[in-house]
Design goal:
With about 240 residues, the protein is of the alpha/beta class. The chain has 10 helices and 8 strands.
Length: about 240
């Protein structure tokens, strides 16, 4: 009996968007209008690439970025939740699927000593160039019309489950914890026994309820959370059964 916990990162594990938080490192803590207005829907990774070039051009170094990123607050109750999962790793496999990047997530999890809670992190690969600039790449290519160009979370989840199955691992239940519009695609892939935990007042919750109103509800159960303590209560019930 093993459960798979799938976490989004921004506005789920942390209470902010890591990509917009990095702007605190920019001169006067803001981006020039031309750069800010250069974002095109579905092409966030390319936009962030331009942001990182701007930061690098303005002499923002790796250690300053790291210091800034590790001040991001965790979502209410999340430290307790991750602590609980860490103590019960024999029951839970735990992955992150996020549109952030490897550098940011690594810094934040390691600073709080939570990196061992997660078995795998699926996110856009990032690294510092020899010139000291942060660069970011697309996670993968996919053919899903619903998702941003660089990441379809359903495809990631499906491939992870297939790989686990090849190694003889199948899950009693998948619990998907997220908040954003790009979390809807993987949630629609979940089965009747699975659970989607949508953050209250965020896009994912709104999109799930729109689907229910148009009489095409998701197959899985849906639980709404406002604090990670709600998720913790559910997991405690789950392992009691």
């Amino acid at each position: 009996m093993k459960f798979l916990l799938v976490f989004d990162f921004d506005h789920t594990i942390i209470d902010e968007n890591s990509d917009t938080w990095i702007v605190k490192c920019a001169p006067e803590r803001k981006l020039p209008n031309g750069l800010r207005n250069s974002y095109q829907p579905g092409h966030w990774t390319e936009y962030m690439g331009r942001v990182f070039v701007y930061l690098g051009d303005n002499g923002v170094k790796e250690d300053e970025m790291k210091r800034t990123m590790t001040t991001i607050p965790f979502t209410a109750g999340m430290i307790d939740l991750l602590g609980f999962i860490g103590e019960n790793k024999e029951l839970f496999d735990c992955i992150i699927v996020s549109d952030s990047n490897t550098v940011f997530i690594d810094w934040i999890l390691k600073a709080a000593d939570f990196h061992k809670v997660f078995d795998e992190v699926f996110t856009n690969p990032a690294a510092f160039s020899s010139a000291g600039y942060l660069t970011v790449q697309h996670f993968h290519a996919h053919h899903c019309a619903k998702c941003p160009k660089n990441l379809c979370k359903r495809k990631v989840l499906q491939e992870f489950l297939d790989k686990q199955l090849e190694q003889g691992v199948s899950y009693t239940q998948i619990v998907y914890i997220g908040d954003g519009g790009n979390d809807l695609c993987p949630v629609m892939f979940l089965k009747k026994n699975d659970v989607a935990m949508a953050r209250q007042g965020y896009t994912l919750e709104k999109k799930i309820s729109q689907l229910a109103q148009s009489l095409s509800p998701v197959q899985c159960s849906v639980l709404v959370w406002s604090s990670a303590m709600d998720i913790l209560s559910y997991l405690k019930l789950l392992i009691k059964e």
